[in-house]
Amino acid sequence: MKFPLAITAYNRPDMLGQVFAGLADAMCWNSSYELIKKLYIFSDGPREKADIPLVNQVRDLAHAWDWTDVEVVEHAHNISQKHAIPYAMDYVLSEHEVAVHLEDDVVPGLYFLPFMAQALERYADEPSVYGVCGYTRTLPDEVVASWPYDAHLYPRPGTAAWGTWRRAWSRHTCRNLSDMARRANEMGIDFSIGGDDLPHALEKYLDSETANWSLAWGLRMAIVHGLYLYPMRSLVENIGHGTGVSTSRHHGPPLVMAERPLEKLPPFYVPSVLCEAMKALYT
Length: 283
Hints:
Layout: E1 3-9, H1 13-28, E2 36-43, H2 52-64, E3 70-74, H3 80-93, E4 98-103, E5 106-108, H4 112-122, E6 129-133, H5 141-146, E7 151-154, E8 162-165, H6 166-169, H7 177-186, H8 197-205, H9 213-223, E9 227-231, E10 236-238, H10 273-280
Parallel strand pairs: 1-2, 1-4, 2-3, 6-9
Antiparallel strand pairs: 4-8, 5-10, 6-8, 7-9
Helix pairs in contact: 1-2, 7-9
């Protein structure tokens, strides 16, 4: 399946350059360039005057990209990550049935594109599957060795190098975090099923103007008992942890990247030791 790829960027041209380099390498691997239908680059506007030179550098890089059909969307004012990513997905999914998203500090590995293409096609008609993520924290070697597939389904939204379908995103009509939290609470939804960190994050951001957009998306998914597909080893690397407005630090096992294509996808969700190991990564 061919798919459109959206990249959201702000004021880190050095990191965006690394993302472009990784994307170029990934496109060259096994003719993967054929998988990208169109590239959309969304450039957020400057928050203050000091950001203008860096934002302009980002836009120069975006307009210089000529590997694929590209559309550059420039915001005149800063709308922040809280709105920039939903805006990008709304924009792309208004024109396509699927969309894949990268932030400007997430570098795709060689096997990212074919994994996303295969998974988006495989689960296109599975209503319980809400998305596909190319990033995963490092599972224990013994857990990976015991699992018969190259990926697994898990009830947690993944928003680093991820993709979804219009049929799932179109159900995300309520973007207000407080309203979504109240609805989930009334339904008795256990938001911790995907990780003990999720209720803590919800409590932290519930009344915050900088609330992470992904929490509302995650609650939408939890309400319908939705799932995400995760690779057994990461297909992307986040190079920006703690370096910008859209990142946070992560302390855990060193990232282990996939060393081969991940092609064997699971037919269904099975709660297992793997799920316990995954949840343990998000305590």
